[in-house]
Write the structure tokens for this entry.
Amino acid sequence: MNDTGDNRFRIRLKQTSYDSRSFMSIIDDTPIENDDNNVTKNYNYFKKLISNCDVNAKEIYETIPKLEVVDVNLQIENDLGAIQTVFEKINSTGKRLTAADLIRNFLLLANNSFEQERLYEDYWVKIEKRIKNQNISRFSRDYLILNIFEDVPDSNIYKMFKDHFNSTGALHIDILRDMYKYSKYYEWLKFENCPIDKINKLIKVLNYVKSDDVYPLYLYLFDTHYESDKPELIKILTLLSDFMLRYRIVSPSGGGGALRSVVQQLLEGLNSGIIENNYQSILFELSNSNAPSGRFPTDDEFIEALTNSVNTNYAKVVLLKIEESERSNIPIPLEQVTIEHIMPQTLNDWWIENLGGQENAERIHEKYLNCIGNLAPISQSYNSKISNKSWDIKQSNLKDVQFIITSEIVDNIAWKENEITKKNNRLAKRACKAITSPLARTRKYQTKNTTSEFEAGIYPISDITTPMSGTVLEYVIYESRNIEVSTWKDFIAEICKIAYEIDCELFKKIVRDNKIHKATSKNNYPEKDPIITQVSTLLLEAKPIGETGYFSEGVISSNRARVYAKQLMDLYGVTDRIQISVHER
């Protein structure tokens, strides 16, 4: 119950801002701002039920006071964690709370209702308004991936969200402020309403080829490039659009796991600075992905897939990209174009005869129906008129189509196997020119040991591609010295000691300039949260670096420890002189 508002609201259950505005519009009989609101829908639903029932108004009115509302007052003094635990259990036997419900309550928990209301109105309501409530769970998942660079199953969004941000000690207002910033970009992605037409067109392609697994990477790129370098952003988004189109058509992986892994590794590399945030570096990384199932398909693979059978939705994007690259402009939006099968999907008597009889026609039809050479972009008005007509009738209609790639077909005297094959090969090669190709691979694929994620041994600290979770460190090797270490937090501290010994003044400058830092700013630090500092309270767990007076971060994974160690040693130019020895736990 809302016992802190004015008298007008004291006897009603507290509602969300949207619900409250719609409710008051109904009560005051004023225009309703949002007729898609649940309150409005419920109101109209009950009006309809009441008008169609035999119960009179007096009976309904007398029944309302008999309704009961249970009010549970927990009386848990300032124990916000306990309150959240109780909230998580609510409705456990009824309709399950969504990740969005749980995350909202987690982020809005405050010691008083006024602070909670401020967080709600200043951030959460604005996020909801941008991306709509039904999208918040998925948005929260993508936002979390931006921070942890790991896969987040839909069933585990809330737990991983809470665990991560509890471990970082981030203030909830900072998380909300950060989420609000990214919600603008998410709105562009979800509703295809970016104010820059070129970018919006690339977003449409991304969504058309069903690539929402790439959203976290897009969010990162918008945040880092949109205000500072739109031309570079457009180049990178074009690259990702082309990569996704090739990936979907060739389909090197049977599921989405490999793609998500590619995205997460890119995000981690970009955040850490291992990968430069520009078109050329991202092209190199995509061209050298760690696993075959996540690869950037080559021209040969692309041609083979296009000339055999291709999803017509993806084919439409390919054909329009060819048209645009060769003719520079497409006046019709993607969603208003359809794909015509020149040899139709259902063979009639004319086509069977044209293709050489029943047996031959069936063979050609099965082999070439959905190849790129038998497909043509066409306006919707044309498609209904010519879909199953004979070749001569199709020719007369196609000659007026505005797409050059389609009108070219009318030059063919007939449309038999020979013509389809020629068109097939020509279009596939043109597609390779219009749609970005990968660079030649220079990095070997990472192979997995069947019994272990890695092979025990000695590795350079620059090797951040080999998975080492669950490993035991033995020692760091530097200048013929074996320095014993047992944990990854000891490792990063030991690397800092080595750096201090090599050049203490350079080390002090690196720390002063905060060169080695996290991707986030959660602990009220003016820049990114540091990994090395003289102020121990800026770290989640401060690990002393010998007797230097400096501290390194103790809450750290094996991979992040190697990333930060490589960054530090790169600044010294001695990365190749340091190795680590590890074995299986």
In short: The longest strand covers residues 471-478. Residues 309 and 366 are 9 Å apart (CA to CA).
